[in-house]
Amino acid sequence: MAALDRDSDEDLVSYGTGLDPLEEGERPKKPIPLQDQTVRDEKGRYKRFHGAFSGGFSAGYFNTVGSKEGWTPSSFVSSRQNRADKSVFGPEDFMDEEDLSEFGIAPKAIVTTDDFASKTKDRIREKARQLAAATAPIPGATLLDDLITPAELSVGFELLRKMGWKEGQGIGPRVKRRPRRQKPDPGVKIYGCALPPGGSEGSEDEDDDYLPENVTFAPKDVTPVDFTPKDNVHGLAYKGLDPHQALFGTSGEHVNLFSGGPEGANNLLGDVGVNKGRKLGISGQAFGVGALEEEDDDIYATETLSKYDTILKDEEPGDGLYGWTAPRQYKNQKVSEKELHYVGKILDGFSLASKPLSSKKIYPPPELPRDYRPVHYFRPVVAATSENSHLLQVLSETAGKPTHDPGTHSRHQLNASKRGELLGEAPIQGAPTSVLEFLSEKDKERLKEVKQATDLKAAQLKARSLAQNASSSRPQPSSPDVGHCSWHMALSGGTAPVRASNFKPFAKDPEKQKRYEEFLVNVKRGQKDALECCLDPSMTEWERRREQDEFAQAALLYVSSHSTLSSRFTHAKMEDDAEQVEVPRDQENDVSDKQSAVKMKLFGKLTRDTFEWHPDKLLCKRFNVADPYPSSTLVGLPRVKRDKYSVFNFLTVPETTSSPATQASSEKVPQHRGPDKSRKPSRWDTSKEEKKEDSISEFLSLARSKVGPPKQESSPLVNKEEEHTMESVSNKVNKGVDSQTEGEGSRPSMDLFKAIFASSSDEKSSSSEDEQGDSEDDQEGTREADFQGSQEADSVETSSVAQASEPAPQEPAPFFPIQKIQVDEREEFGPQLPPVFCPNARQKLEAPLKEKHKKSKEKHKTKKEHRRKKEKKKKHRKHKHKGKQKNKKSEKSSSSESTDSSDSQSDEEGAADLSPQELLRRLG
Amino acid sequence: MEDNNKVTPKRGFPGQKVSVQATVRWRGREGGAMAFPEPKPRAPELPQKLLKTLDCGQRAVRAVRFNVDGNYCLTCGSDKTLKLWSPLRGTLLRTYSGHGYEVLDAAGSFDNSSLCSGGGDKAVVLWDVASGQVVRKFRGHAGKVNTVQFNEEATVILSGSIDSTIRCWDCRSRRPDPIQTLDEAKDGISSVKVSDHEVLAGSVDGRVRRYDLRMGQLFSDFVGSPITCTCFSRDGQCTLVSSLDSTLRLLDKDTGELLGEYTGHKNQEYKLDCCLSERDTHVVSCSEDGKVFFWDLVEGALALALPVGPSVVQSLAYHPTEPCLLTAMGGSIQCWREETYKAEGGTG
């Protein structure tokens, strides 16, 4: 196996680490169990993947206490004189070394201390502070830090000071006042990032008017651009409720959430500390009245909703935003008309469009005429076919114009497949859409007949109703006639006659459901008054009408949904395993019959089961045997999926269970029955009736009806007189089946089996006690004489088997529940269907018999037959020889042979003189 | 019973020399000319002279088996060892130890190069005869291994176990799992025999199953009573089945019909062996009453009840070509020859 893997490795990309190849004879290594998989730290201690602080450190000794011995407090000194000095524990005392390392929670690394950091109260820092304060959960909390300023300044600060630098100034040589910067033209495009317009330039404005020539100034302090990433989902330039406005603002001021823009940004970024002379302080509801507070008028200021916009106002002067957070429009009234489209703050890097967008023209929807009614009616249309051409004629006469147009079917009469046909679609190849396709040809024909009758009636009905409709100018869908007609047509077409009964639209009301089913049945039969006769006569007229509509609707619905759905879906190729279990297809059947066979020492076909068995290919190779099933990948016995809880898994269906169905079918098909079917046949009656045949053939036939069909493959039953008994056999099979089902005690007697399987010597005695009646005895006598003649040639010690084969009814009949028909088992996969009505039930029973005849024939050396028959049989004989034990083949041929039975009946007089002894000898 | 015998002669019956046309590839026939019956067969002689008794020193001897040519034998001991003897000389050639529990069955390959054995340790072991080493150890059975067999070319070991499976182990490849597992039996497998294309298995569920590889079919014959031993006849046409109802049955291989029934011995508890004599003339079976029973195969009559000892005859093996019988009782094995046997060149 490993070698195979290695071969296939070469052209495969492998991922991961391969396992080590197994050594010879070595068992696969067991993986390290979970409890032995440990992680240790650098000191060899176990590392646990849980912990109080960082997750993955070991606290104490195996997560318990400090040491193996326990938890010893380090500070404990047991002495009266020197008390333990009270030590203050920091968090580090409870931490491990790992926590103090670089990646721990308290890394002890070299960092710049605050002493050497710049302690400038510069604006950058200030601004960051302000920003933090503005966005902090408690607004203004950072202001506390500003109140408490550390005294010491950083080294760099002091150095700069000593060099003449003052706070608030920039660094560099003193300069003259620069010429005033031009404001960018509106038409000039600015790419990239520009400095924010607020801030430093705002302070410049005050100095504009006074510019002495001989004065130099320190360079302006540069405020770095604040690149705040946008990490929220607000609109551009949106800012939330400004705490300065909301809390420190005047109470009368209207809080405008959208009053952002340059001023707002200035407020934020600008000098908050000198905010229009107002002192910063802690105020507001959360803090109460401070001692330093001067203005106490709005201490108890409450946030009222009146401060906020509650409606979207039409247009406020100066603010045309309509509640949008977009940059403000109409801010600047003096801009030209061109800029009217977009005023407000232009984002950096963008400029206004020079050409206005042409607005989309919106076309109003067309006006409806006043008398428009949004319902459309199609005219009734009849497709011109041969059957309803007269109808068309009538229709065209009454309506005045021909309606022959195949394309204009009413859409209510078309189902998906018909529409598909009209559109030239290929029909969907899917599962059979109806049960019809599972039916045999014969059934289909019968159904067809029924359907034709229905169609005829429906067509008549339709013609009538259509004529009525056509006479009226407008078809009225609510008229019961049309409704009736439509559902009738729908039901009578296509799959209507065969309908699964699992569609129960009125399941809640069992009475109604019953009526509905009755209605369906009537419809199937083609009764045009299907509805009337199934409705409850006690109902009122209104109720009847209503129910009628309902039924029609339900029937239509079911038809359409059934056909469309089934054509759109296919059966699952892979079946769900949940409900099913794999069981061997062929099972060794019940041992009880075999047990009795063993007791009687009737080894052979009774005790033998033969299965198809697939040896492994490698096994065949090792045994130097050709694979018997070269195309099969199966190994072992063929297995089928059956319902997990199906009775069939546990029940070996004895032969008798199928006989009720067979009986039922034979009642349905009376032509298969013999003339004596009217009364209850028993074995003994039939034998008397069939006096013309010898009793052996009868018993053989009976035995076969019991034994033969299930086990035809292992039947060396030899019937020398097949020509002679062909008809009787087939008749008796039916009788035997009947007697099986109708009579409890009509099993074949022990003698029967002895006659078939045992040799003659112990059965000589039974001849005297045969109960067949005197007349039969006579026949037996003459027959025996014949037998003796033929027997002498054979010189076999079996002398008088004929008598032995006589039934001895006084003997208790051994019960032989006979195993399932193997023909069926071979062809069927999946859960076995219950035996259904099938007209060729007789064939099935006959087939094995035929086969036995074949077999007997081929062994028969001195048969007198028709030449024609013989030639026919020869073919089969060859066949037989080839696959003596291939049951399948013989079964296949048996079906074809069964057709021979009819012609063979004419030959039956030919082989009348064959000896039953010889026959039975072959059986043994 | 007698009646059944009368029906049978039309079949190719081993005792009647009809078997010449059958192409026999049974492993016992590889000696050469012995495969074909002589034109004037000698009257069959039964081994009834005790030639030797070997105390194996293995505690109880679970099974005794001839090798392919009958010159050596294997004894399976309950002391976890397997021993190779030369029974006629009475010498111990080699001891094979490596089983974890008692050894229940063993078989030798056609070329005498390897042995296989199975035992209570659920393992099937392939041994190298010369070195005495374990070549392979096949594990997979869920219960103790009752019976092991090589196929004709010693490429596959078939082992039947109490876990109701027969496993086909590949001796050629290194795969640890069996080629195929025959799990059709409903109860433990007591006996497995292999021909060139068939596997015959007797099970405690009372069925004899014959897997025909060539035909791809499984024939299951119901016997009813738990099967203790099955074997093919040397001509490959019949199967001999012994079951716990103290009956041996000779079944036609193709049809499953009963050709003969042999009773008189006692086999109600133990898994005892049965076999056919070297020329298919007699049916031989162990018995729980300390005897070995010989029946005439055709007539079904008891030919000889050979008293071996006081306790149960646990196992027996019949020489493939000569009337020589090995029986195992307790901790020793006995070698039996026909009365007229004379040791060539002095025994020992």
Helix share of residues of chain A? 25-40%
Give the name of the CATH superfamily of the domain at 59-237 and 244-267 in chain B.
YVTN repeat-like/Quinoprotein amine dehydrogenase
Classify the secondary structure makeup of chain B into a structural class.
mainly beta
Q: State the low-pLDDT regions of chain A, or none.
A: 1-5, 179-188, 198-208, 249-255, 257-286, 317-323, 328-339, 399-409, 470-501, 652-700, 706-746, 760-914
Strand order of the largest sheet of chain A: 1-2
Principal-axis shape of chain A equals flat
Number of strands of chain B: 28
What would CATH call the class of the domain at 59-237 and 244-267 in chain B? Mainly Beta
Mean pLDDT level of chain B = 85
Give the arrangement of secondary structure elements:
The complex is a heterodimer of chains A (924) and B (348).
Chain A: H1 2-9, E1 39-40, E2 46-47, H2 97-100, H3 123-135, H4 143-147, H5 155-162, E3 175-176, H6 200-204, E4 216-217, H7 243-248, H8 262-269, H9 389-399, H10 416-423, H11 441-471, H12 480-492, H13 510-525, H14 530-534, H15 541-568, E5 580-584, H16 591-599, E6 608-612, H17 617-622, E7 639-643, H18 655-668, H19 683-689, H20 695-706, H21 722-742, H22 750-757, H23 774-794, H24 801-804, H25 822-827, H26 841-859, H27 867-882, H28 887-898, H29 900-904, H30 916-923
Antiparallel strand pairs in A: 1-2, 3-4, 5-7
Chain B: H1 2-7, E1 49-55, E2 61-66, E3 73-77, E4 81-86, E5 91-97, E6 103-108, E7 114-119, E8 123-128, E9 134-139, E10 145-150, E11 156-161, E12 166-170, E13 180-182, E14 189-194, E15 198-203, E16 207-212, E17 217-222, E18 227-232, E19 238-243, E20 247-252, E21 258-263, E22 274-276, E23 282-286, E24 291-296, E25 302-307, E26 313-318, E27 324-329, E28 332-337
Antiparallel strand pairs in B: 1-28, 2-3, 3-4, 4-5, 6-7, 7-8, 8-9, 10-11, 11-12, 12-13, 14-15, 15-16, 16-17, 18-19, 19-20, 20-21, 22-23, 23-24, 24-25, 26-27, 27-28
GO molecular function (chain A): RNA binding
Protein name (chain A): G patch domain-containing protein 1 isoform X2
Biased composition (Basic and acidic residues) (chain A): 669-695
